[in-house]
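Each field is listed here:
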Amino acid sequence: MYLAINIVGILIFLLIGWIFSHDRKHIQWVSVGIMTALNIGIAGLLTVLPWGRAAVHAAASAFSELVKVAFKGINFALANWVGADGTHPDAVNFVTSALLPILLVVPLFDILTYIGFLPWLIKWIGRGLSFITRQPKFETFFSIEMMLLGSTEALAVSKLQVQKMKPARNLMLAMMSMSCVTASILAAYTTMVPGDYVLTAVPLNCINALIVANLLYPVKVDKEEDVIATIADSSETIEAPADGASSAPAAAADNTVSTLDTATDGLAAQPAGAAPAPAGNRFAAWVKKTFKRDPNKPKKEPFFSFLGDSILGAGRLVLIIAANVIAFVALAALINKLLGLINPQLTLEHIFGVILYIPSLLLGLDPGTAWQMAGYMGKKLVTNEFVVMHEVTKTIWAFAPHYKAVLTVFITSFANFSTVGMIIGCFKGLAGKETNDLISKNVGRMLLAGILVSLLSAGMAGLFVW
């Protein structure tokens, strides 16, 4: 019976997206159907098939080993905070076990970006996803970027594209950004909740963000618009940022935008009617094109200067997360204290438990468990995922398998009230007034998008874990 409820729940979550859609007539149902089937297949692959589970378990173990390596550095600076030998985190606090390892993980992922591996990975996964899902190229790229880099970071590195796209497409990016994570923080998550389900949530959130954005605010993208901006685009006329900063003069050149589906990408153009070049010459041309430095491309920062900035950035990230957790936990406690003056049983958890109780039931949970799940869901929205993970870290391992799966997947994202403010603030510095006005008018849809993506991902993962 609970499996049937879980299936119905997924359909209802999709129906809610349709009900609150800005333009129901232009929803691309074929694409939505393809993405839904693909995501359910991925959920089954990662939770049921032995080799899929083995791959996820191996990835989770790799993150665990990475954290243990980070403990060595922590123990050198802060002796005995992670045990005498620097490998035993059981007796330490939240900051030491979950946040300080970020000082290693963030620079590691930044190095992968510096050498070009991470952008290469994003590019090719994005191409494949665009082909399968029939979605615009940049939107699929962005869905991968935001799952590896985080919302504000992904938007920042996509500045040129954001400034060239029409406001409706940027609103889609804003809604998708509500469901992101950061690869460098996944290691922290895996120290508090089951790592297998944390890593299962990442690809599910990626595709569900595309599904929900297409339901809530479908946008028709013409072939001429379906391009990826390059560095050379900075010389074109683009939408001025909201602060009124002027853009560079327009430069009329067709080669300033790179179209990803060009079959001859990287090869020299052949005159019409000319005989095909020999294979050896074509390969040499490809090598020359690939490894020749683009004069318009900015020079790389020296490696150790880059690494130093990355480490400082990681330190700031640790302080930001710690400050947010402390502030939000304290604010939640203060609100509960004030609510207790009205009724001792009245708390934020109970209020959101009532609001989110039905969605919790639709995840295939029994009534008692659904009430507890609804409280965790509400606390995550009001505070953040770290608060909930820290609260359940000692008890989640004893939960029933289905409950453990849906709870972990649901809380593995940045979807909360504070993320809304971060995204709006980021767009203020990247896009023009028209874009920012549209995003500000659709804050409700942004929050709904984050909730629906988390519910869909949890429901899909829960289908296969009982």
Summary: The chain is about 65% helix and 0% strand. The longest strand covers residues 228-229.
